[in-house]
Amino acid sequence: MKRILLVGKPNCGKSLLFNQLTGLKQKVANFPGVTVELKSGQFNDFEVVDFPGTYSLNTLSKDEQIAVEKLNEAINQDDTEVIVNVLDATRLERSLVFALQVQHLAQQHNKKVVFALNLIDELQRFNHQIDVAQLAKDLNAPVFALSAKTLTGVTEFQKGLVEIAKAPFQQNPHSDPSKNVQSAKALAKKYAIASDIVLKKQNAIDNFLLNSVFGAVAFFTIMFLLFQSIFTWAAPLMDGVEMLIGDTAALVTGLLPSGMMQDFTADALFGGVGSFLVFVPQIMVLTFIIGLLEDSGYLARAALICHKPLSFFGLSGRSFIPYLSAHACAIPAIMAARTIESPRKRLITMMTIPLMSCSARLPVYALLVAVFIPVDHTVLGIFNLQGIAFFALYLFGIVMALIVSALLSKSKMTEQSQSEMPFILELPTYRMPHWKPLMHRVLNSGIYFIKRAAPVIFIVSVVIWVLGYFPQNADLEHSLLGQFGQFIAPVFEPLGVDWRYGVAIMMSFLAREVFVGALGTLYGMEGADENIAGLASQIMADGLPLGTGIGLMLFYVVALQCVATVATIKAEMGNAKLAWALFVVYGLVAYCLASLANHLI
């Protein structure tokens, strides 16, 4: 299958155009560094490959280096038919510098080049027109004006792209690479809208959001409301899911005859797998809020605000974006660290990302917070106390990451053997989110979490149920599982938990969210069938001490209990020993913190 390559600078709408061409729902956002790996999909009879956003063939960051290396490989291959240069119509000069470099590279390898002048809807708001036909003559290549967001001109672009891809190659005069910057400036002067017109509204907003005082207040307010929303917005959905699971469990188990199958369905399926499904709405709400920040363009401003304080801890302002992304999932966040120009700061960021509280921790936090803080308690009659507790847990993870970053920045392992790269970050134009991909991303976050976690939790629940059910006439404590739990109980005794929690913690080394499913199975097998989905109320009735509960929360904030994250760190760093060293060190620190909390509170 012939290929079409999609390239362009960050924030030019390239990924959204890729979605429109292929029908795939790739992540679309409004800050540099979203696409940090190659994405592909089918359009017509062609494979479309979306490359990471790049400012120049002369690379600075890791993701640009990967993009340029892969671009050179792709252009050298015979099955590459067309290179589509996506231009930002509102910032034409910056787009053209890279586009002209790519055009010259394509000419050297006899490849066709097409220019997609995106964000044309932004120009229309300012009543600015670009002579597309004349621009095509000046570039000596086809140019299509379009808006991937409003779909203006997309149909014409799709039709024209197919015709060009299927047409025979025609050699054009080669451009002069030494004049790329000069040519970009000349073309921008001739066609581009004046930057002060586009930036007038943006600068007015930035004067507030980037102000040293008001900007900081706005930043902390936004972050605080983000975590408040996880509980307040998701609470009705969580209640609905819990009620649905409880009613379904009662209905299904009532249809089954008494015996092993009924016990398995109630304890392993609804008690184990059902327990963690209650927390899926919180993951979706978190994804929605982060998506709003990304798509609006605020995330890049937050990175700029954080640059100076993060520099104190040996990090970069660009570290903020992977850090925030890690609150959804550590794996793409570690890959997003490629956008950090400094190799040293990139390494420190990757090593501390696991301390950010990802969505897998949400079920654990939500369960333990629900046990110790009543849902109707508020501060000042406005702020939900459970939301404040959530914010404190996330903040603790961030503080731990900063402390570890400061220590790493002064260690010999990350000493500045290479020259530091400058902090460069483009501030994108403020835009309304594109709601369709955003809502699809939110829905996918829930589906992805279920697909990723449910099989593991199901297997763990089955193993726990089988070991706990046999010998059949024995109670849970004297079952095979109980014997194993009693064997490992001394290890977890300093944490103040009994053997059931020890088993759940051991099982959760596969994935953190397994802790909830494992406890759900164990509590279900102890006879709490009348409240199968209400695991929090079962733990409350069991009398878990406050110090022990806080210790468990701190343990899960710090411990690196995710095999997939360890594998990703190993792949990105190219160092298996370092990846497993992080696993061990974070585990020991988490254990010590949990023990201290249990003894001191």
UniProtKB/TrEMBL annotation:
Keywords: Membrane, Transmembrane, Transmembrane helix
Membrane spanning stretches: 208-227, 268-293, 352-375, 387-408, 449-470, 501-523, 544-566, 578-597
Domain of life according to the entry: Bacteria
Cited CDD domains: FeoB (cd01879)
Domain FeoB-type G: 1-167
Name by which UniProt lists this protein: Ferrous iron transport protein B
